[in-house]
Amino acid sequence: MAKTIRSALVFTGRVINDTVSFVVFSLLDLLDLFLCLAYRVADFFIEAEWKACYCSPSKEAITNSGKILVSEHGESKIVCLSSTKLRLEEISDTLYRRPSLLTEVSKLTVNELKRLKLDGLTNANNTNTNINVINSSHHEKNVIKKGSSVRSTFMVNSTIVEMLQGKIGGQQSHIPIPRWSDCDCKFCTCWTSSSKETLFVKAEGPRDSAREDVLFIHGFISSSAFWTETVFPNLSSAAKTTYRLFAIDLLGFGRSPKPTDSLYTLREHLDMIERTVLEPHKVKSFHIVAHSLGCILALALAVKHPGSVRSLTLLAPPYFPVPKGEQATQYVMRRVAPRRVWPPIAFGASLACWYEHISRTICLVICKNHRLVEFLVKLITRNRLRTFLLEGFFCHTHNAAWHTLHNIICGTAAKLDAYLTVVRDRLSCDVHIFHGEDDELIPVECSHNVKAKIPRARVKIIEKKDHITIVVGRQKTFARELEEIWRNSSTRT
Q1: In this protein, which residues make up the domain named AB hydrolase-1 (predicted)?
Q2: Are 436 and 462 in contact (CB under 8 A)?
Q3: Which one of 439, 447, 466, 489 is the catalytic residue?
Q4: Phi–psi pair at 392, nearest 5 degrees
């Protein structure tokens, strides 16, 4: 009887949650549309130009020729995307394709209008091989295959095109101009000269006599302080004299550069880590400790340097195996941000992931005024709250958070299987996974999924701990666990 009642209550709760969520997120869809228009007007009057957003229509079809036609300063030119430049496939389609009731209705309306328009057009002569200037309001790009008169047309989101113009055309500035909605304090806009484009890194340990190196990578909207304020002080004296410790602020977060023209792709994040730590410090063999989103970067880094990684320690890795027939990026977005009002952390993730303009508003209120918010929090809590967590949460830009969330967590969904396979088959390093039992953001099943993919991985579920308290609050214990992992890895090799 009790079991039946419990099942009925769970079912009722789920129905209420689904119903309330549908209403709330339908209203948020409308609000985000209104804010889109409001920000366009504000950007125009404050910055004297329209700012493109990801509400523009887009199309998935991208050709394989490696050439696109872009418009710049009223002129059109062909741009080749080489292996050393930004490539379109690195950009997640979830940036501009987030299905909702409102977007589906809008899409049907637009498609119907296009059909009616096309029915009324007359046939034009398309046999010449000249490149025509395309209607920039729809951002359609023509691609011409070498030795052929056949042209294919595809659409690329306006924001991507604008950023590509700067990156490939050499127009970008190494000292970005902050958006009016971003904080412009020295801490937040710390991009330096072109010869010093590196991340902020906190390094500890002996420079010359260190036996091994350890790289710490934080998670989403966090900073290196997540490690330096918890793990670093609790490592033993022996560990501090044996290992060089590197904790970085990822590109766009904490005290690291926050370039306004960056798309914060996986390639950009990895390049900056290599340029900041591996190359200047001549790191050849190292351990990696990563949390949440940082686990994806850790796996990508391990795959790129398979012979250098001594051990992989992953905390709450966001790995969701994609069912057959599902589109990987869209599936992971729905898992991470399920458009539900409960639990609260799922509601927060949904706001951050689904709504470009609502999340920009949140950054405008909190991040732009982070110094005032930090003061008020300290005043109200009488300095009882761990302020280093506030630093990581407040000190980023909307551009950095928005693109990193989509291009790393969602955009790498189709790559993670391959990364894990490489770690399983080509790397001999130890793999240790820690996960909080009460983690509501990244479910425990994600760690078990990694274990299924890499059988030698050791999974430890920490009771009564969540996404943050898996480290914060148990830092002494975790420091001992890390030392044991590093020591055993060194002994085994």
Answers
A1: 214-320
A2: yes
A3: 439
A4: -70, -35
Q: Which residue has the tokens 């955009």?
A: 411
What DSSP state is assigned to residue 396?
B
> CA 223, CA 221: separation in Å to the nearest integer?
7
Q: Is the dihedral of CA 453, 455, 456, 460 positive or negative?
A: positive
Q: pLDDT digit string (tens) for 43-81?
A: 988 887 777 788 865 433 333 334 444 433 333 333 444
Q: Please tell me which residue, 332 or 173, carries the higher pLDDT value.
A: 332
Give the per-residue pLDDT at 97.
83
How distant, in Å, are the alpha carbons of 44, 272, 283 from that of 305? Answer: 45, 15, 11
Domain ranges of the chain: 60-90, 201-491
How many Cβ atoms sit within 10 Å of the Cβ of residue 45? Answer: 9
Token couple for 203: 């390094």
The DSSP 8-state label assigned to residue 253 in this structure reads B
Phi, psi of 54, deg, nearest 5: -90, 20
Active site residue 139: no
Residue whose pair of structure tokens reads 């001992």 in the numeric block: 480
| Catalytic-role residue among 21, 181, 292, 359 | 292
Q: What's the length of the chain?
A: 493
Omega within 30 of 0 (cis) for the link into 57: no
User: What tokens appear for 395 in the block?
Assistant: 């000190």
406 catalytically annotated: no
Catalytic residue selected from 213, 359, 467, 489: 467
Where are the strands (E) in 271-364, listed by range? 286-291, 309-315
Mean pLDDT in the chain?
A: 80
- Are the C-beta atoms of residues 288 and 313 closer than 8 Å to each other? yes
Q: Is 467 a catalytic residue?
A: yes
141, containing H or E segment: strand 140-144
CATH number among 3.40.50.1820, 3.40.50.2000, 1.10.443.10, 1.10.472.80, domain 201-491 = 3.40.50.1820
Say whether 403 is catalytic. Answer: no
pTM of the model: 0.81
